[in-house]
Design a protein that fits this description.
By secondary structure, the protein is α+β, with helices and mostly antiparallel strands. It has a domain at 164-265: CO dehydrogenase flavoprotein, C-terminal domain (Enolase-like, domain 1). The chain is 35% helix and 22% strand. The mean pLDDT is 93.
Length: 267
């Protein structure tokens, strides 16, 4: 196996351009599981852990190499909250936001937050950079719009992010759990509400009808919350798998979204 260890971003981009089908390694929390189970045998690996440019977090830009451990203590409440639910302290110390994006699992815990704030994914290659909205980058289960020779540089957040934020997820156990359903809700001072759900569709999704209803209610009544819950359950498109049935996920999505919204409504 050929392993390259670039020391800076230009060297990394050159290496990726020269070996466009090499596997990119950051924290390795997903890749090494597949390698250990003999599901993957990469011929070439480019290790990115030493590239400081990928660990930048400033001016609304979160580098792909920023770890969950850093997100835990960061300034964004929902991002910090979701980071605390990921794996063990050891996993949070090495797992990265870029790795979560690149894996593109429908259950990825950073993805509902990035979808709710309408983040852009910044991609780089030796030919330059490009940005894609989250919904254009995530194209299917474990599928992205990355092309050979490209790497995720990070995510660009919008200038305005609502202060009221909440994240929640349901799983089969309390520790080191992969989400059966996860949810992020943001609510602005004018009532505008954004909701993003994970593990209930081929990619993270926004239940737009439910968002519109919640946004139209300055102080949602119990009847409005009931309808919000119903709309979320109706809009998601889950599957049955070894973690949950389609029926359970659909019901749980509505309940979880309602409870997360209620947290954002608390003064």
């Amino acid at each position: 196996m050929l392993i390259e260890r670039p020391q800076d971003l230009p060297e990394a981009l050159e290496g990726i351009g020269g070996s466009p089908h090499a596997v990119l390694l950051a924290g390795g929390t997903d890749l090494m599981v597949e390698v250990n189970l003999a599901h993957r045998r990469p011929e070439a690996v480019i290790a990115l852990r030493r590239v400081d440019d990928l660990q930048t977090w400033e001016d609304g830009f979160i580098g792909a190499g920023v770890t969950y451990a850093r997100m835990e203590t960061g300034p964004l409440p929902a991002l910090a909250e979701l980071a605390r639910t990921v794996g063990s302290p050891q996993i949070r110390a090495v797992g990265t936001i870029g790795g979560n994006l690149g894996t593109a699992s429908p259950a990825g815990d950073t993805l509902p937050f990035l979808a709710a704030i309408d983040a852009e994914v910044v991609l780089g290659s030796r030919d330059g950079q490009r940005r894609l909205p989250w919904h254009e980058f995530l194209v299917g289960p474990k599928q992205t719009a990355l092309t050979p020779g490209e790497v995720i540089l990070g995510v660009q957040l919008p200038d305005h992010i609502p202060a009221r934020q909440a994240f929640a997820k349901i799983g089969t156990r309390q520790a080191m759990v992969i989400a059966t359903v996860n949810c992020c809700v943001l609510r602005d001072d004018d009532g505008t509400t954004r909701v993003a759900m994970g593990a209930v569709a081929p990619t993270v999704m926004r239940p737009r009808e439910a968002e519109r209803l919640a946004s139209s209610e300055p102080r949602p009544s119990q009847a409005a919350l009931d309808e919000f819950q119903r709309l979320v359950s109706a809009e998601v498109a889950p599957i049955s798998d070894h973690r949950a049935t389609e029926q359970y996920r659909r019901h749980a999505a509505g309940v979880l979204a309602r409870r997360t919204l209620e947290r954002c409504l608390t003064p």
